[in-house]
Specification:
The protein is mainly beta and 149 residues long. Helices cover 8% and strands 46% of the residues.
């Protein structure tokens, strides 16, 4: 009886094996319409801007205007990495940074996939003990989708 109880507890707390590091690879549309393409290079994961929102908050000319490094303010946002140096561990991507082109600031980041819907992930940017979480939905083709909050 004790064995059955322990086995039940193990399966309740065991990580979801359907989420692997490769599950993160692909295009993800963030609430607001921007699409980030997550890819793997070596042991690290990165995310680049694949498409900008139709109504961006800033950088209307498509350049990295808010970057604190003056020499980088003329680089195009499309194709630019905003997720950097993430590692896959315990079902999540973490240990890296996210760059917010709207403010020119960089934050610590964690990305995880909803275990009940592998086409839904969350991107959480941290500044000290404060954080903001964004929803992202997997884009299965070049057609974009809309996400509700």
């Amino acid at each position: 009886m004790r064995f059955i109880f322990l086995l039940t507890i193990f399966f309740l707390i065991a990580p979801d094996s359907s989420i692997t590091s490769d599950t993160y690879i692909g295009k993800w549309e963030i609430t607001g319409g921007s699409i980030i393409e997550i890819y793997k290079d070596g042991d690290n994961f990165y995310g680049k801007i694949h498409k900008r929102a139709e109504n961006p908050l800033s950088n209307f000319n498509g350049l990295d205007n808010k970057n604190p490094v003056k020499e980088l303010q003329n680089r195009p946002l499309l194709g630019m990495n905003i997720l950097n140096e993430l590692k896959y561990e315990d079902g999540e991507l973490s240990g890296g940074t996210i760059y917010n082109a709207d403010s020119g600031k960089t934050y610590t980041v964690k990305v995880w996939i909803n275990s009940e819907d592998i086409d839904l992930c969350y991107i959480r940017a941290y500044k000290s003990f404060l954080f903001k979480t964004f929803k992202a939905r997997r884009v299965k083709s070049d057609d974009t989708i809309s996400i509700s909050n």
